[in-house]
Amino acid sequence: MAKTTSLKKEIQVLAVKMFELMGVDASVDISMTKDGTEGENVYQVNVEAEKEKGLLIGAHGSTLSAIQSFLSLAIRQRQGDWVRVVVNIGDWKQKQEEQLTLLANQAAQRALQTGQPQRLYNLDPSQRRIIHTMLSENQDVETQSQGEGSERYMVISPKS
């Protein structure tokens, strides 16, 4: 518990300092949850920055992903272990998850109706993870990622 508290404080200090250096007026709140699929600690960094929200999210969440990667790497260098850090600016992550849930359900329905695998392209690893996790509860379809690197895509197929 003490390590969790000190790690939350360390992430808080790093995030606040990063936004200060960027010249962004932002409030940062850190919470910790357990990932249901793997039972690992996930540190949720919730950022409120009304004036710069769009700038911090970036095109398709690219700046948000960079901020998340930076915080993960900085904590890794300080702690020696990888820690899962998830950054959410405003309610962007929730909106993205809602869109991915809709996309996954539509693809699963198409797979079941046609009997054909449905391919989803242009998803980053975190988006594929969300869809894998969400559809793991569906007994009628299965998911898998195929391809390598930037050519990686997801396939949703009816279970045989």
From TrEMBL:
Recorded superkingdom: Bacteria
Gene3D superfamilies: 3.30.300.20, R3H-like domain (3.30.1370.50)
UniProt xrefs under CDD domains: KH-II_Jag, R3H_jag
Polar residues bias locations: 139-148
Region (Disordered): 139-160
Domain R3H: from-to ranges: 94-160
Pfam families referenced in this protein's UniProt entry, alphabetically: KH_KhpA-B, R3H
Any one GO molecular-function label of the UniProt entry: RNA binding
This protein's name: Single-stranded nucleic acid binding R3H domain protein
Organism: Candidatus Woesebacteria bacterium GW2011_GWB1_38_5b
